[in-house]
Specification:
By secondary structure, this protein is mainly α. Helix content is about 60%, strand content about 5%. Among the domains are: about 150 residues, Collagenase ColT, N-terminal domain (Glutaredoxin); about 90 residues, Serine Threonine Protein Phosphatase 5, Tetratricopeptide repeat, CATH 1.25.40; about 110 residues, no CATH class; about 50 residues, no CATH class. It starts with a strand and ends with a helix.
């Protein structure tokens, strides 16, 4: 996974909203939507400022609607509802007695209070009626109990932010109401927000909190610890949860599922969860409890074992066809495995059952948009000798970009696969599928189902999805470096059968960016340097937590940098072979601590100490002069704005003396070169930008200036290399392609020149005559005279008096 090094939101393992994709609302909502692009819900009430809504209830109509609904898998409430009649219905539901539960809930509709009727129609799948009934109940008597349950209904319809507001209303009524605190925590846990800990601690530490609320808090804490790979802590909490549930006769189905998840995470590859005693125990209690498979599957998803997750989700929906969330996850998992048709089938079924889920709506809309993409399969001639050494690759590129991106993406992919095959001694077993999205929010939906994602690329086994260079400003990311990073993930994931921890896979990818990628050299944002200087590097055994549940802003990005530096440290101190030994240890089930101990023959604490010493030595000059470096950088910006070139030169030289590898956005190299050039010191400017480029700098305008200087000095090969590097950061500039083609033609590289001219023509340049003429020249050099003549005639159609084209046509006509 590639991440932006700028400040960005990374609260999920993964916002600008557009009509195609949405966050926080689907085509159906319990609330009236204020956004015109979403159809308003049918007869849904809008809550007032105090949480009160419309009270007119058409009970007979509601009963009619209920007859068409199947029983809804309403979450176990662990005693949050204490009505005896409702509890009898709930017990049947929780034990899989579907027909009896349905009859029981229906019987309550005409006789119970609005609050109980709300619970009954909710269980029967009529969310709108449930919403209206809760509204009526709160209007009669507002209470923390009712508000908390109303909030849970909003969670069930995927409207988490509205749910959080209602939980806060409940806590205004009763600041210590434990079920409202747990409800708020459940929303925040899903958002990967650290504030969840405050709510959980308040419940777990309160002596008077109901046992059911404490149990829910424990179950949330267990889920978080499993996500953080804290197996020991999760196991201890599970034992406490069992004891608490047993002592208070509370349902234990979720406990069984979490036990199964814990067991599966520790089991050897290929273990069949169906043989788990926890699964058997759960199914004996409720044969339709799909979450006994779906909950363990979630931990396969977050550890990137997509295919194993899909198999478990299939089991979940097989025994519980109306487990809509499992169907969504199954569809998402199949899509991540490039099974597009099968994924659509599951998502369409999920939408019919649960039209509130924004993820379902978003992904289905994304799948509809795939008709606008070209699918390019390589090698084009499977049996052709010319392609015998090529790795099979599939590119899914938007039709408006495929002609431009395809040649560069394919070339880079082949280079990466060849490099990684050698380095990791692992040969890919399937074609790599690469999807490139010109709309970042489409990429975000492809990755996480919702927009607002701060990532650049993501890898699902043999499937890579990423932003197109057109999706962002030129200075925001280097698309080729991102692709190089993601292709490293393909190898580390597949070589370890997806058992590699996130930090190590990310670390290897970052290390490869720095050492073998298109822009070599360690490049780290200033806030990461500040974090390392402040001693915020995490212990190696705990580094995954920095990616999954960060403690401070930008910790995810800092963790990327730390992981890359750890791999750099390993390579320098112990040799690259140790990185492969780490991969082997992970493949056979070692966690981070065990892998470090086995490979380096030292405890993780000693490894951490040596790594921290490496950090201090590697960045000694920067850490000792950090404030001066930041001040110099700030001064450069100020002086540059007022054209104070002597000050720019002075501060830039000082900043680069402290950190010579500073080629991040706003690099002193670019400002320094501009200042030199403004002072008629073109040679110094050229040398400065040459150093900038060699260290991985990729500002397109600066590099074009450098290439122009090199070409004027007849340093054609150097000029071509600089211009070629621009195509891997900003490939949609027809002038760069034309200039590069001209240089390649001067170098007698007619094939390369033709390739650049073809791309330039696809970019619809304003001077079509010149574009066709360039094509004709390259084709003539390749002795493809008929094609050359066709292109020169096209040039003359546009500009009949184009003398150079006329001359070329004469030459072609006289040629034999």
């Amino acid at each position: 996974m590639s991440v932006m090094t700028k400040a960005c939101s990374l609260n999920s393992p993964f916002p600008r909203l557009r009509g195609k994709v949405r966050k926080g609302a689907s085509e159906k909502s319990l609330e009236k939507s204020s956004e015109k692009s979403v159809p308003p819900p049918q007869s849904s009430p809008a809550r007032g400022a105090q949480g009160r809504g419309r009270t007119t209830l058409l009970l007979s109509a509601a009963i009619f609607l209920l007859l068409t609904h199947t029983l809804h898998a309403r979450e176990i409430h662990y005693g949050a509802v204490n009505d005896a009649a409702l509890q009898r219905c709930d017990q049947q539901q929780w034990h899989g007695q579907v027909a009896g539960a349905r009859t029981c809930y229906r019987a309550l509709i005409a006789t119970a209070t609005p609050a109980v009727r709300a619970e009954a129609v909710w269980a029967l799948g009529d969310f709108k009626s449930a919403n209206e009934l809760f509204s009526a109940a709160v209007k009669q008597r507002s209470s923390a109990v009712l508000l908390a349950r109303w909030g849970e209904l909003y969670i069930d319809t995927h409207q988490d932010q509205e749910a959080l507001k209602i939980f806060n209303e409940a806590l205004q009524v009763d600041a210590h109401y434990a079920f409202a605190q747990v409800g708020a925590a459940s929303v925040l846990v899903e958002q990967f927000a650290t504030q969840a800990n405050q709510y959980l601690a308040a419940v777990l530490d309160a002596e008077t909190a109901p046992a059911g609320a404490k149990l829910r808090a424990m179950l949330l804490a267990i889920r978080v610890n499993l996500e953080n790979s804290d197996i020991e802590r999760a196991a201890g909490l599970l034992k406490q949860a069992e004891d608490l549930a047993s002592a208070n006769q509370l349902p234990q189905l979720e406990i069984y599922a979490l036990h199964a998840a814990l067991e599966l995470l520790q089991a050897p590859q290929g273990t069949d969860v169906a043989n788990s005693p926890w699964v058997k125990k759960a199914l004996a209690e409720n044969s339709a409890y799909g979450d006994i498979y779906a909950i363990p599957a979630h931990y396969y998803v977050i550890t990137r074992r997509t295919r194993e997750a899909a198999e478990l989700y299939k089991k979940a929906v097989a025994i519980q066809p109306d487990n809509w969330s499992a169907r969504v996850e199954l569809g998402t998992s199949l899509l991540r495995d490039n099974q597009v048709t099968a994924a659509r089938e599951q998502l369409e079924a999920a939408y019919k059952g649960d039209p509130y889920n924004v993820v379902t709506v978003n992904i289905l809309r994304l799948l509809d948009s795939l008709k606008n993409f070209d699918v390019l399969v390589y090698p084009e001639q499977a049996a052709g000798a010319a392609h015998s050494t090529e790795a099979p690759v599939v590119l899914r590129l938007h039709k408006k970009e495929s002609a431009v991106l395809a040649p560069y993406a394919y070339k880079l992919t082949q280079q990466a696969i060849a490099s990684y095959t050698r380095q990791f001694n692992f040969k890919l077993k399937e074609p790599v599928v690469i999807e490139v999205y010109p709309d970042h929010e489409d990429f975000a939906v492809r990755t996480a189902g919702e927009p607002g994602l701060g990532l650049l690329g993501v890898t699902f086994g043999y499937v890579v999805a990423m932003d197109s260079p057109s999706s962002r400003a030129v200075d925001e990311f280097h698309w080729a470096d991102t692709l190089w990073h993601e292709l490293a993930h393909v190898f580390t994931l597949e070589a370890t059968e997806h058992r590699v921890p996130r930090w190590f896979s990310e670390g290897v990818s970052v290390y490869e960016e720095w050492s073998t990628g298109p822009i070599k050299g360690i490049s780290i944002p200033s806030y990461a340097y500040a974090a390392f200087k402040a001693g915020k590097a995490l212990p190696v055994a705990d580094l995954d937590r920095g990616f999954i549940r960060p403690d401070y802003p930008q910790q995810v990005q800092v963790s990327y940098m730390q992981a890359g530096l750890i791999c750099t440290f390993i390579d320098r101190e112990f040799g690259f072979a140790k990185l492969n030994e780490m991969l082997a240890a992970f493949k056979y089930g070692d966690d981070s601590a065990a892998a470090v101990a086995a490979v380096f023959k030292m405890q993780p604490s000693e490894f951490d100490a040596r790594f921290n010493a490496f950090l201090q030595q590697e960045f000694k000059t920067l850490f000792e002069n950090f404030d001066d470096w930041r001040k110099a950088r700030a001064n450069i910006s100020t002086a540059y704005k007022r054209n104070d070139w002597p000050s720019v030169i002075k501060d830039a030289q000082q900043a680069l003396k402290i950190l010579p590898n500073d080629v991040e956005e706003g690099s002193p190299y670019v400002a320094l070169a501009h200042a030199y050039n403004a002072g008629n010191q073109a040679e110094q400017a050229q040398n400065t930008l040459a150093t900038f480029w060699q260290k991985g700098g990729h500002d397109p305008e600066a590099l074009r200036w450098l290439a122009t200087r090199l070409r004027a000095q007849n340093k054609l090969s150097d000029a071509a290399a600089v211009l070629d590097s621009i195509n891997y950061v900003a490939p949609f500039n027809y002038e760069v392609h034309g200039e590069l083609g001209d240089i390649e033609l001067e170098l007698k590289h007619a094939d390369a020149a033709l390739a650049e001219y073809q791309v330039a023509l696809k970019l619809n340049p304003p001077d079509k005559a010149a574009a066709y003429y360039r094509m004709a020249r390259a084709l003539k050099e390749l002795q493809r005279n008929a094609e050359a003549k066709k292109n020169v005639l096209l040039a003359l159609d546009v500009a009949p008096n184009f003398s150079q084209a006329q001359k070329l046509l004469l030459e072609l006509s006289n040629a034999k």
